[in-house]
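User: Assemble these into one structure.

Assistant: Restating your components, then the assembled model:
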Amino acid sequence: MGLVRFFARRILLTIPVLVGMSVVVFLLLRLVPGDPAQVILGLRATPEGLAAVHRDLGLDLPWHRQYLHWVGNFLSGDLGQDYRSHIPVAVLLRQRLPVTLELAALSMLVSLCTAIPLGVAAAVRRGGAADRAAMLLGLAGISIPDFWLAIMLILFVALGLGVLPSSGFMPLTQNLVGNLRSMALPSLTLAAGLAAVLVRMTRASMLDVLSREYIKFARAKGLRNRVVVYRHALRNAAIPIITLLGLQSGYLLGGAVIVEQVFDLPGLGSLTVTATLERNYPVVQATALLIGLLFVVVNIATDLVYGALNPRIRVG
Amino acid sequence: MSRLLEVSDLTTEFRSGPRVARVVDRVSFTLRPGEVLGLVGESGCGKSTTGFSIMRLLPPTARITGGAVRLDGDNLLTKSDEEMRQIRGGRIAMIFQDPMTSLNPVLTVGEQLVEVLREHRDMSRPDARAEAVRLLQEVGIPSPARRLDSYPHEFSGGMRQRMLIAIAIACTPQVLIADEPTTALDVTIQAQILRLLRQLNTEHRQTGILLITHDFAVVAQLCHRVVVMYAGEIVESGDVGEIFAEPKHPYTQALLGSLPSRGGERGALPAIEGLVPDPAAYPSGCRFHPRCRMAFEDCPVQHPSRIPVTPGHDAACLLYRR
Amino acid sequence: MASTEAAAYYPRVLRIGEILRRSRMASAGLTLGAVLVALAAFAPLVATADPTAMDFNAPFARPGLAHPFGADNFGRDVFSRVLFGYRTSLLVAAGSVGLALLFGTPLGLVAGFVGGITDHVIMRPMDALMAFPAILLTVSFAGVVGASTGVLIVVIAVVYLPIIARTMRASTLAVRAEPFVEGARSRGASPLRLMARHVVPNAMDPVLIQASVLMGIAILIEAALSFIGLGTQPPHPSLGLMLADGRDIMRDAPWVVIFPGLAIVLAVLSFNLVADGLRDVLDPRGALR
Amino acid sequence: MSRLQEEQVADLVAKFKRGSITRREFIAAVSVLGGLTAVGGTIATLLKSSGLRGSLTGPVPAAAAGMPKRGGTLTAATIDKPVNMDPAFAELYSSMQVYQNIFSKLVYVDRNYKFVPGLAKSWRQVNATTWEFDLVDNAWFHNGDKFSAADVKYTFDRLFDKKLGAANAVFFTPTEGVEVVNPTRVRIVTKPNWGGLIPTLAAVLEVVNKRAIESADPKLQPVGTGPFRFLEWVKDDHITLERWDKYFKPGMPPLDRVIFKAIANDTVRLTGLQKGEINWIEQVPLQMVDQLKKAGAIKANPNGAFFPDLFLINCTKPPFDKVEVRQALSWALDRKAIARLVWFGQAMPSAEALAPTNPLYSGVDPYEGAPNVAKAKALLAKAGYPQGLKAIFAAQPQVPTQVQVGQLIQQMTKQAGIDIEVRSFESARWFEELATKRYDFTSTYWSATLDPEHCYFPLGHSQSPWNFAGYKDEQLDRALEKFRFTVDPVERKKAYAEVVRLTALGAPVVFQVNFLRTYWTQSNVEGVATLPSLELRMEDAWYA
């Protein structure tokens, strides 16, 4: 029963935040100079043409009516159409979300598999090879801008060795190998940055836990080293790591804009940028809400995992 | 088999950069089965380090540089890490000082008990759980079956200390090292834990208990023999009765003097002036001489060796030269 | 007693001597940082050419004597552009973090110290600000005022404000619970005096460490935003802009993207080294991640 | 020159264009065939064109190799995504590239600027204000309706419907009315002697069907009489067209199907072609053109300089309100450097909108010999800016060539005393700057250049809605109208030359270069060439 109450409370709490955000995004878009009709008609715009587009898109209505109109459609499941390509926004999001999710999942996976073991090894044998590697990867990782790393990978791996594609996206449904090849370099780029932060956090958190009394007591009980490190230490060290993962996945979902653009991946990030630049109101409003929702889902998931790991704050 | 645990000339040093602190300096004592030996001294005298040296559970900056620790004739210092690991928790177990921090907060109490049983007595999971319930009962925890799957934060300090004890005796160890087991508890709980330890001592006749404490009252209630440490050395050892009746070493006398006895007269308790010496720069000769009221010209020069004052009761003080 | 009293006034971070002595990393970071700042400051002297000067008949010149880092498609000297690019990067980093500190610290201090309703009134908008998509913020600022380095400094400062405020609030809460603060309060010290003499000096350490990290990240953000055309405007050299322009021609002139990128890495690395060094010295147990 | 020689020369020209033989080999081979002069204009044009490494702008010989074979599917990759299939709007060039294969025009233009029959078999100018068109009787709309004159009338009526606000209406302003004489003859009444009717019909008038427009959204469901029928549009991915069996040109089009994809990134588009997944692409990374031509694995099809890039100068506010300042800017330009450095040699320096191959081409350039710093400085002094002036060039980060040209002229004009700041505006803001005339000056391309009227008139005439420069000059207006209302080709060419001269001197717009739009295909694809109307006629394409 506790869990249901927890979910209900969290969902109810997020609704005002999302509504608030949608209003702010709606207003901000209208406040910023630049008329969507002008972008659509470009140099061939004529006064009648602009008026016709405004009528067609409902932009001639007062703002509050436009917002209520949008909310009405939203509640009935209609997210409106992309001003330029007339593609239903729902279709656009359905095409773009999997790309962003796959990119986020792959880079999260790669970074977890490298950062956690390396961070643990670094903490267990301080000053050892793993520790030096962790420090190096950590410092280099957070100092290298991801978009530069992307360009270097394209330059040396894609163009240099001609091994992996330098850009473009092959849908999973179409061809698995092609998909993984097209996602290889982009996820590697994001994973590097994420792994750097993760390895530093894991190492610091493990060092902190390994100095605790209950670890000394576990050793006094004569438990194998593996048991002490992974069952006793890592489970405690995982708590701050999970918090970090929650924050980082927020970045992966909305922030990986530039990596998406450098590798020409049709993800949510690049959609937000192009739509914002073209004043594509329905697309921007929908993507902002979706990214906001993903943030909320990630936060709830982090809290749940928190509870699972840390009995003291277990929920329900 | 009369000598269960024989520590001879054990020396442990902490190295940090140029500084070398000889925290344990040629310490020797023996523990017989069924006996409770008190290792007593002010904090910082090296008694806890002695305990951890025996367990070979020292931090990276510390190293045992001399002596021998024979458990049942085996010299633990020559054991490999793996061999030592199997001994810990099995043949030698340890109880830590602060129950609040010694149990893993994210694992259930049952898990932390069962894992020791499965490790050393390779029992199956169900058998281990059953044994765990029995152990909790033995250390006086109410409705143990139900509490097995609770988490440490759901227990009081006293209960958690009983948990530590249960874990320690899980594999009926030959030697039980208790490092300040009651210091972190309030007085009423302290009494219960001491009663429990005494009860365990009477039931497990073959187990020897090394009780590390700074509290003579605890020594009085629990120990058969006592060893007094000062500045990394043993300054006096003997039967509890004798030591309490006729302490020989000025340091022991001072310690006992500052003990509020029930019947004693009012008035300020005498305190020992000065501070415990820095382990990297011990005073010359007898290390207690700067704070010793009975010190005379030889004390700063000559280093006293432990001389038997009466059979079974020796003291390391120049007053009792052979 | 006087000496410890005085020491309490200056955040330990500022006792440079001690930090340098005790942390090789911090000193490495500081020296690297100092070198970069010097290069940026004396760019006009050090640069081998005017960063905006084009040489029409030497496009894509390879790295060599004339152009240490080679030339771009307009024949502009990459080395000089990197040096002047540093000026923009360091200006943005210092400006944005400075602004964020100016406003974020007091907000965090008051929220942490006073607590209760004030805490919520200050911190809830901060949380909302953090969830806001930074790209929309940038575009709207750039849209209204026109993209430029100045706008960039303000935008990054706005993004950093909640981070600094939250860090300051957390460390204020920690310091406020310290016995010596309770002691001072019991001696009748006014809240203002309390905050100024006791809380701020001791709470600043984590904030200044955070600031150092944020300086590094600010350089990344400036480069990123210029990369997509919303930050620094041509002809002002910016490392991000150079990367963006270089992308199309990197096949023929890889040096046009390699060196600006390396320059960014060095700048950010110096700030991170300093932050790591400070953290090791001032908080060995790593509580201030 | 014998029939055989002509055949061999054509083959050599085709091989040279594909880059499979170098210029030196070409000349050696031709001389063997009987001397350079004997081969005529083609070779001369080829040799004279400076800065054009390996490409050819002379009149293109007819398809060298045999008759088109029937069948096959061609996958084409344009740069941008198509957005709107309604021909009245002509919204985004990428939309036109698709729907020009679904709809038909009354009149078409071929590679050599000759106007050839489309839905109109023949046409004549009955009197000063009336033109009559005899229509084909075997054309069918894809929804089964038979094509007749009524459809032409409906198309025009819809174009002029103010409520619809169709952009192409601007090109037809001189049109007075359209009358149906009989199902196969239609009469168009215009202002007297409008010389631009035929070129405008060939450029922007696709005939639509009333029943189709009213039954489905014309933006999404195009129905025309063209060679290919609209099959499906998988949004954000591709559009498939299928051969229309009842196409009024017998036996055409050779291809069974055409699939249009959009790939924005040059490298990805090129890789697709090289890997064989795509058979036709719109453009390759410009700096790789020579290298690809040498490699010869993929085919560069004959191209034309039909895509002018020009400066738009705001004449309504300082500093460019004074004509001398605009002229000073014209003098300060180095068009060769722009062509070489910004367009990597894939553009021709040019002082006017038309390509040299266009019969009306004037070659007039009052700024012969630019860049000339002295003249520029003198003009600035005359305009009251002896110590020079500052101006802002508005550039869109999303249009790299615009940012590049901005940075380049910044350097060029500095010596002449014009201090230019390049300021970035994302597209929405850039259009806003243009519409509200807040900008100083900027650059843009202009895609309608089949006839000067489609370019000079909208940009230069004071009454035109697209007079972004806000330029008002009686003399130029009169010259534009004189050119518009002249039919005789010789007179038109003279009138056009005058328009070019006046436009250059008034300098509201300053032409810089003409971009050589090149289509690239796999080696077995024949019949594809850039057309002066920039149409993408897939009906010409076939697999060898």
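The two ends of chain B are 31 Å apart (CA to CA).
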